[in-house]
Amino acid sequence: MQSYDRLLIGGKWDAPATPSVLQVISPLTEEVIAQIPDCSTRDIDRAVAVARASQDHGPWPHMPVAERIGILRKLAAGLRAHELDFARTQSEEVGSPYSLISAIQAEVAAALLDYYLDLGSTYPFEEVRPGLFSKALVLREPVGVVGAIVPWNYPLSLSFFKLAPALLAGCSVILKPDSATPLHSYILGEILQEIGLPQGVMSILPAGREASEHLVTHPDVDKIAFTGSTAVGKRVAALCGQTLKHVSCELGGKSAAILLDDVALDQIITPLIYRALPNNGQTCIAQTRLLVPQTRYAEITEALVERVRTLRVGNPLDPHTEIGPLVTQRQRDRVDGYIASGLAEGAKIAVGGKHPPAMTKGWFVEPTVFVDVNSSMRIAQEEIFGPVLVVLPYADEEEAIALANDSAYGLSGSVWTADQARGIALARRIQTGTIGINNAGLDPAAPFGGWKQSGIGRELGREGLEEYFELKSILLPPERPPAFAAEERAVPGL
Question: Would you identify the family this protein belongs to, as annotated (predicted)?
Answer without folding.
Answer: Belongs to the aldehyde dehydrogenase family.
